[in-house]
Structures are given as C-alpha cells and as structure tokens.
Write a structure and sequence with these properties.
The complex is a heterodimer of chains A (about 110) and B (about 110). Chain A is mainly beta and about 110 residues long. Helix content of chain A is about 0%, strand content about 45%. In chain A, strands 2, 5, 6, 9, 10 and 11 form a six-stranded mixed sheet that branches. Chain A is globular. The relative contact order of chain A is 0.35. With about 110 residues, chain B is an all-beta fold. Chain B is built from no helices and eleven strands. In chain B, strands 2, 4, 5, 6, 9, 10 and 11 form a seven-stranded mixed sheet that branches. Classes of the chains: A mainly beta (about 110), B mainly beta (about 110). At the A-B interface, β5, β6, β9 and β10 of A face β4, β5 and β10 of B.
Chain lengths: ~110, ~110
C-alpha cells in the first residue's frame, strides 16, 4: 500500500523566511512524487515533480529515498506563496496518485 | 489542449435532497477520469475513478455514486445528501503525456449541505 504523510496542517512564516513543507511517503518500490498547489480561488495545479529536478517559483524538492521524504523548500518565502500544498505519490503500475492531507502555508508580510 | 468544466460551481442543498454534479472534458478522448473530495481537515480524498464509459470504481464506501454515460462526461450523484457530504468536489484527468501520474483538475464544485 502507498501512503503520503504531511505532518503539518498549517505552516505560518514571515516574508523572507525559509520555508519547508514536509512530506513523507510509504511505498516499497520506486515512486513518482509530486507537489501540487492551490492558490486562493484557483484550481489545484501541479507545482513540480521529482523526476524533473526543476525549481518552480523558487521551490525545490529532493527525493530522499533513505528517509522516504520529499520535502518542499524555498529559501525566501513570498506573500504570494500563501496557498494549500499537497504532496502526491504514484506507485509503479498504478495510474492513481495518492495525496497527502495537505499543508496550508501562510506567509505574513 | 484539454479542458475540464465542472457544474455547478457552488451548491447549497438541504439534508435528504438529491445531488448531481457534472464534469465534462474537452481536448482528449477516452481519458481516465477521477472524482476527488476536498473536505476541511481531511485533505484530498479519491472517491471514484473511471477508465471508460460505464466503468466506475469506488474507492470508499459512501452516500455517493458516479456514472459515466459518455466518454467525456463524468457525473457524481446522491439520492439523499448527508451533512457529511459537504465539501469541495474536484474532477480530474491525467495531464502530461503517458502515465506520468500528473493530474489536471477542474475548478471544482463547492457543496454545502444544511
């Protein structure tokens, strides 16, 4: 079975501070991992995927197989980063991703 | 490019009333389609998925049902709504190319049951 855990329901930081949204997963094989973001009044959309090894809007996420984690990081948070963030996993052979419970990020001015 | 339309965007219904939420997609053929519910404190929960017309798989037992009468239409229904059915319902289909795991979501339907 595959499982995604986002331990923080809410993360509150000030503008300019570093931010790390935690994601841990449980899966026996090699997973595909994703971060999705939902800004206020916008649709849920893909932010980044681990296989792309890209930085989007200053965010990066590194897959750590030893710790089974895929934390989302940004060195300097901006107010426009305030949103709901979901970590998701797709196991090999499955076409249905499993989502975590989400973390609400609030960046204060 | 593919698009997803969800209707209605907002709905307020009394307990015990029926429900029908519609999702239609364009720009793709025979896609897998998904219904998710986003409820306060409970994250994003997969309710149903469909791999083709008339084919529905239910992920969790509940008061809801789904149907796929046409290739590009996915409907979420209930005969009698419960208070616990309140939430934000999202329709999704695979994004990207191939089985990448990426999903493309609709704008959602917000249901409040009173």
């Amino acid at each position: 079975a595959q499982r995604v855990t986002q331990p923080e329901k809410l993360l509150s930081v000030f503008k300019g501070a570093p931010v790390e949204l935690k994601c841990n997963y449980s899966y026996s094989g090699s997973p595909e991992l994703f971060w999705y973001v939902q800004y206020s009044r916008q649709r849920l959309q893909l932010l980044l995927r681990h296989i792309s090894r890209e930085s989007i809007k200053g965010f990066t996420a590194d897959l750590n197989k030893g710790e089974t984690s895929f934390h989302l990081k940004k060195p300097f948070a901006q107010e426009e980063d305030s949103a709901m963030y979901y970590c998701a996993l797709q196991g090999g052979g499955s076409y249905i991703p499993t989502f975590g419970r989400g973390t609400s990020l609030i960046v204060h001015p | 490019s593919q698009t997803i339309h969800q209707w209605p965007a907002t709905l307020v219904q009394p307990v015990g009333s029926p429900l029908s939420l519609e999702c239609t997609v364009e720009g793709t053929s025979n896609p897998n389609l998904y219904w998710y519910r986003q409820a306060a404190g409970r994250g994003l929960q997969l309710l149903f998925y469909s791999v083709g017309i008339g084919q529905i798989s239910s992920e969790v037992p509940q008061n809801l049902s789904a149907s796929r009468p046409q290739d590009r239409q996915f409907i979420l229904s209930s005969k009698k709504l419960l208070l616990s059915d309140s939430g934000f319902y999202l329709c999704a289909l695979p994004g990207g190319q191939g089985n990448t795991g990426e999903l493309f979501f609709g704008e959602g339907s917000r249901l409040t049951v009173l």
